[in-house]
Amino acid sequence: MQIIHLSHHIGGTDVSGAAVLQQQNPAKADDLQITIPAADAHVVEQAVTAAKAAFAVFRDQGIEKRADALAKVQQLIMQHSDELSQLIARETGKTFADSKGEVGRAARIFGFFAGEALRIVGERLESTRNGAMVEVEYAPVGVIGQITPWNFPIAIPAWKIAPALAFGNTVVWKPSEISSATAARLMALIHEAGVLPGAVNMVLGGGETGAAICANAGIDALSFTGSQATGKKVRLAAMERAIPVQTEMGGVNALLVLADADVDAAVENALNGAFFAAGERCTATSRIVVEQAIADEFVSKLAARITQLKLGDPLDAATQIGPLASPNQKALISGQTAKMEQHPGAQLVCGGTAAELPACFFAPTLFDHAKANDPIALEEIFGPVAAVFRVKDYAEGLAMVNNSRFGLSAGLCTNSLKYAEHFKRYAKSGMIMINLPTAGIDYHVPFGGVGASSYGAREQGRAAKAFYTVAKTTYLKA
Fold first, then answer.
1. What are the C-alpha distances in Å from 153 to residues 156, 181, 184, 373?
2. Considering 282, 291, 380, 459, which one is annotated as catalytic?
3. N or C end: fewer C-beta atoms under 10 angstroms in the chain?
4. Is 158 exposed, middle or buried (0-12, 13-18, 19+ CB in 10 A)?
5. Measuring CA to CA, which residue among 167, 194, 201, 237 is closest to residue 52?
6. Is residue 248 annotated as part of the catalytic site, yes or no?
7. What is the pLDDT of residues 85-143, one digit of tens each?
């Protein structure tokens, strides 16, 4: 049994606290135990004070120094890729292969924003008043409060921290208590890279720590990724103080499969989107909307592929699906799946709650003949559970896709350019996937949804500038 004791990181130094939370390896509880302190309002205030002091220096260090530091973080992440990947697998249950891919993505994000730090472009225009000019420049916001989830324990922190630093802000960051050891290693690498002490401060803890960040008067903007319920609290806290806020809160994502699609390819897209990463992705497919003409064939082939999936130790190279991230997560998914099993109409094809598995493992589960009022159509299931909704044609299928208060990622499998173009225009979703899984995104382009999925400016890519800077307009006359 390996035991890891964690500390907060404030102003460039570790700050200890009483261990009140813990996380174990969700695949093997006797392998790893992580003990975690919980920052109260006093510790959060220390972190905010350090971030404010650092901001006064950091914003004036110059873009090249910031770019060099971000590039160094990229290098260090890649140098420690295997170590980080193993830790993610042991701490969260994500397979080693998935973890390795995520680590690489996090490194690329820091590299991307190292370049963006050198490309903070403003504008100079003639004024409508003769003899005067107008300049528009983009200044840092200040101290950014960031709250990140456990399902992408290094990539999501990267896509929040890297742009914040690139544009000259400083950070008070609270990672999930389920992935705090991975967060601590990233924090150590950021410090090792030479980022100004206090520019990034990590405070550990649960919901009370996040609430303390949201309530602190020294926080100038809030960025959150997690559940809809918590995202609402974050938004309300930000609005109470009239500060910028962005919240990403998941989705009930749909993949529409038309009769003209390559059925085998569509099955693989559905399999990937619904079940890989144990379904613990905000872009995962939970609603598989299939045109009736091919529904029997599609369900039969998908069920056959599901039975071939290998569940097991995340560190085993043969494992395709690891466990859910925690016992609480397993209990939640079990309860949601039981509601579907008890709901009239939908038919269980494979998996389900009767498939009792050890530790935090949960069987990939598929329902058929689901309806628009079924629980899986109304609420996010953050696990390997999906349902097939049968429709008569494209029009009914699009209506089913759009029949959700969420709108993060929506996919279409078809060989028709006509339907692909129509879907791109009329699917109510922030991200559209054509003949691809709903899950799986690039790091250099905007990320976000519509409706209950997202609020505020987009994340990732060049779009991050909108949240992490303030446009300042200056009028000049000689």
1. 6, 9, 10, 33
2. 282
3. C
4. buried
5. 201
6. yes
7. 999 999 999 999 999 999 999 999 999 999 999 999 999 999 999 999 999 999 999 99
